[in-house]
Amino acid sequence: MAAAVYQITGYKNTGKTTLVCRLIDYLVSRGVPVATIKHDGHSFEAEPAHTDTARHRSSGAVWSAITSADRTAIVKEKPSALLELIGEAPAEAFILVEGFKAERLPKLVIVRRAEDERLLGELSGITAVAVWPGYHLRKDAVPAEAELFEIDDVQGIGDHIQIKGSRRQS
């Protein structure tokens, strides 16, 4: 079976990264290889300023790679579309995407505060909503086809995303 792609979305400081890390732990414990793709709304620096590869890029390199016995990192001086990154990920990996709210892939939306509910009416592909403890989500706010989870229900969410993830073309 081809691996799948699933998005974890929500506004800043809603717990996306924490949930993604917990889902990685859960899926890996079940023997599922996981790849991740994260959207950063700001410019980021992939390596410390005075490393050799950072110096290569500051000298004008548009593509820079570094490899060791344990890992490889590639930095491109251009943005990449989500579908391009998905295509570069290992074929056998289940891809967890953090962010990229507007993409049309199956997604979970995290709701921590009242203002977060707005996303439930704006985004497409919502198959799940995760709410924080103590937050009472209006029942009519949850899209008809979506399942509702507590944010700490990692097993329930993990099982859901394995079923609902968009199958990759192999």
TrEMBL record:
What organism does the record attribute this protein to? Paenibacillus glycanilyticus
The cross-references to InterPro entries, in alphabetical order and at most eight, read: MGD_biosynthesis_adapter, MobB_dom, P-loop_NTPase
Q: What is this protein called?
A: Molybdopterin-guanine dinucleotide biosynthesis protein MobB
Q: Which residues form the Molybdopterin-guanine dinucleotide biosynthesis protein B (MobB) domain?
A: 6-131
Q: Which Pfam families match?
A: MobB (PF03205)
Q: Where are the transmembrane segments?
A: none
